[in-house]
Amino acid sequence: MPRFCLALSLTVALPVVPAGAADLLRIYHDALANDATYASARATRDAGLESLPQGLAQILPTVNATAFTQYNDIAIAFRGVSPEQYQYRLGNSNGYTVTLTQPLFNWQNIQVYKEAGFKAVQAEATFGQATQDLIVRVAQAYFDVLASQDSLAFIQGQKVAISEQLAQAKRNFEVGTATITDTHEAQARFDLATSQEIAAQSDLEIKKRTLQQIVGKFPERLEPLKANIELNPPKPNSM
Question: What is the largest CA-CA distance in the chain?
Answer without folding.
Answer: 149
